[in-house]
Amino acid sequence: MHFGEDRNAYEGAVVPPIFQNSLFTFESWEAIDAAYEDRTNRFIYSRGKNPTVQVAEQKLALLAGAEKAQLFPSGMGAISAAVLHCINAGDHVIAIKNIYGPANNLLGNYLTQKMGITVTYVPGDKLEDFEAAICDNTRLIYLESPSSAVFGLQDLEAVGALARSRNIRTIIDNTWATPIFQSALALGIDMEVHSCSKYIGGHSDIIAGVVMGNAKDIDAIATREYAWIGAKTAPFEAWLILRSLRTLPIRLRQHQESAMKIARFLEAHSKIKLVRYPGLESFPQYALGQKQMSGYTGLMSFQLATEDLEKIKTFFNSLQLFKIGVSWGGHESLIYAPAISYLKELSLEQFTAMGISLGDMRISVGLENADDLTNDLEVALEKIQA
């Protein structure tokens, strides 16, 4: 709540101010020369360090148990910088199959063409699959736990130990759980990335990302990928993150409570074939989730008990409180069907191979009344004719 703030320097202001300036001036040659000697920690130009951004970074690092954090203007900016930091041309990367779509395109398309890297995709639920995929030039294992669409978990402690034994770096997209519910760095992962647009922001009014890890990695990213690509975080977005961090634990408790009620309702409904939510005892990896997570957030998916597209659309379009949208983690409840975007990029066979179907729905349970949300789903489900 208060870490990193210096109210004496802010004239006692209870909320840190927005330093909306592009540069910082110095009294002498010697002063600016000294600043350049420590440019990763000194304020010179706001494309580098900025006081408002720094306070947000310090709080995020503390929350994750990291030595340092570096904010980016989007989650993909953070992912791209972290990946580029770990690999060189011709390297081999191991990634789980169901990672965030743009991250998958970065690894499997863009970097394979531009840098000649190779990627091996594994389901992620068995340590042996990671071990079998390791090559002499493997330099990175990229994780996302829980994963996109199917919410599969990876044993972070085991994968981290395997990677360290082979001198391989590890990155996890920890956006779903947040550092509140999953301490990935403490489990042995080298760096974690987040889309701050999701739970960390929490109000659907921020686009930002963050990379967190040890000081050596983060300073190198700040000096190279962050500075050279020009991926500056605006002071105002950092200030909004500061606002959001004050309520993050409270919001997550409510997301979890409501999501559990809705997951159990869906699991018992005759028109639902399957619910994918790590907090349910029926989830195949429930024991692993209990081992490495301290809680569960509000994003889940479920499969309707029909493949009839017209019936699926009827359900989808009948919802009132669940708004249609692609993101998640905000105060509002959302629904999205992976088939809408995936089938524009993949064949039906590729789509099916991901373990999802036309009837798969992804919902983000927001902060509305849980009974109202359950009723909204019930009414829409009843419109699916047998």
Detailed description of the structure:
- The termini are far apart.
- It is built from 15 helices and twelve strands.
- The chain has two domains: 29-245, Type I PLP-dependent aspartate aminotransferase-like (Major domain) (Aspartate Aminotransferase, domain 2), CATH 3.40.640.10; 248-382, Aspartate Aminotransferase, domain 1.
- The strands form two sheets. A seven-stranded mixed sheet has the order 1-7-6-5-4-2-3, with helices on both faces. A five-stranded mixed sheet has the order 8-9-12-11-10.
- Helix 2 (51-64) packs parallel to helix 9 (235-245) and helix 12 runs antiparallel to helix 15 (370-382).
- It has helices at residues 29-36, 51-64, 75-86, 101-115, 127-133, 156-165, 178-181, 215-229, 235-245, 248-267, 286-292, 309-318, 338-345, 348-353, 370-382, and strands spanning 68-72, 92-96, 118-122, 138-144, 169-173, 191-195, 209-213, 272-276, 299-304, 323-324, 334-336, 360-364.
- By secondary structure, it is of the alpha/beta class.
Overall tally of domains: 2
How large, in whole angstroms, is the Cα Rg? Answer: 22 Å
**CATH homologous superfamily grouping of the largest domain:** Type I PLP-dependent aspartate aminotransferase-like (Major domain)
Give the helix/strand class: alpha/beta
Average pLDDT over all residues:
94
| Annotation field: number of helices | 15
Question: What's the CATH C level of the largest domain?
Answer: Alpha Beta
SSE arrangement:
Elements: H1 29-36, H2 51-64, E1 68-72, H3 75-86, E2 92-96, H4 101-115, E3 118-122, H5 127-133, E4 138-144, H6 156-165, E5 169-173, H7 178-181, E6 191-195, E7 209-213, H8 215-229, H9 235-245, H10 248-267, E8 272-276, H11 286-292, E9 299-304, H12 309-318, E10 323-324, E11 334-336, H13 338-345, H14 348-353, E12 360-364, H15 370-382
Parallel strand pairs: 2-3, 2-4, 4-5, 5-6, 10-11
Antiparallel strand pairs: 1-7, 6-7, 8-9, 9-12, 11-12
Helix pairs in contact: 2-9, 3-8, 12-15
